[in-house]
Amino acid sequence: MNDSDSYSFKTPEVDTIRLIMRIICPLAILSNCGVLYCVAFIKSKQTHLGVLQVYLSIADIVVSISLILGTSILDREALCTVVGVLTNYFLNASSCFSFLVAVYAYLTVLYDMSLADQYWWAYNLYGWCMPFASTVVMFTVQGLVRKGNVIGDSLYFCWISPEYPRLRFVLYYPLL
User: Fold this and answer.
1) Taking the model in full, what pTM does it have?
2) Fewest CB within 10 A of the end CB: N or C in the chain?
3) Can you name the CATH fold of 10-175?
């Protein structure tokens, strides 16, 4: 058994998961658009925390679109690569901004909102640069390991291909 076989699903299971994603993701997009609307048009929501929620919502919308597309674009390698890069970036950005919302809330509740606001530059640095670093590492590993395109069929959508199974874990879970 090789690394890529250790987490394989049968075709009916994958098809069921894809169907569930195609039902759930439009609801996620709709709810995230609600967050965008609230922050844009309700003055009391236009805070640093609100902006972090907007960043998180944007990341979740992009990931949801990727999950809706699924593997239907695998035959178009360039498009799959672009979607895979965006998926990697925004999947990690979603984790980063979720963490930052929690950090901001923690600092606000335990200390003071002005203290939480002082770190606005650090929130942006972490939230936007860590996913970028993850994406750069992904292509660096591709260049070093040379097992083919790092972006490909990851069962549900275009993301890290089966040739790099450990890369999925290394690039995604540490940022959680």
Assistant:
1) 0.88
2) N
3) Rhopdopsin 7-helix transmembrane proteins (1.20.1070)
